[in-house]
Amino acid sequence: MQILVIDAQGGGIGRQLVSGLRQAVPDAEITAVGTNSAATAAMHRAGADHAATGENAVVVACRKADIIMGPIGMVIADSLFGEITPVMAAAVGQSSAKRVLIPFNHCDNILVGVPNTSVSALLQEAVDVVRQLAADTK
Predict the structure, then answer these.
(1) 3-class DSSP assignment, residue 55
(2) How confident is the model at residue 96, as a pLDDT?
(3) 57-95: burial string, b at 16+ Cβ within 10 Å, e else
């Protein structure tokens, strides 16, 4: 199973996702793609098998992934303080992979109907969803 984790800014969300996935789905191959080198480095240190940075890395990795994880802003052009390019958002949205999107209400994107939940609870729920998806494909 190929899991792609995408993150921006400092990579804190991606780092926590990679760490949780490493424990929950130990046989998965995890690729981390950051929109900048700080995000990429944080996810790589957390245990990603592969790590890359930038727009083209997102495009290429989206073609190979079975599951794509990250903040919901990764499917919205110019979100995450402008770090998600239109090309990146399209690559994620057009991928045949299942997308596990973490619903954060920030960067001028408000998700109606999403309760205020702690970041750690959101990330744990996302990891649990991927664990179930991985189990269903075996």
Answers:
(1) helix
(2) 97
(3) bbbebbeebbbbbbbbbbbbeebbeebbbeebbebbeeb
Q: Provide the token pair at 121.
A: 């609870």
pLDDT tens per residue across span 72-81: 999 999 998 8
Q: Cα–Cα distance between 39 and 67 in angstroms, integer? A: 19
What gap in Å lies between CA 116 and CA 39, rounded to an integer? 25
pTM tops 0.90: yes
Q: Alpha-carbon distance 83 to 7, whole Å?
A: 9
- The dihedral sign for the CA sequence 65, 56, 107, 21: positive
State in Å, rounded, how far the first CA of the chain is from the last one.
Answer: 9
> Tell me, what amino acid is at 36?
N
Written as six digits, the tokens of 113 are: 């109907």
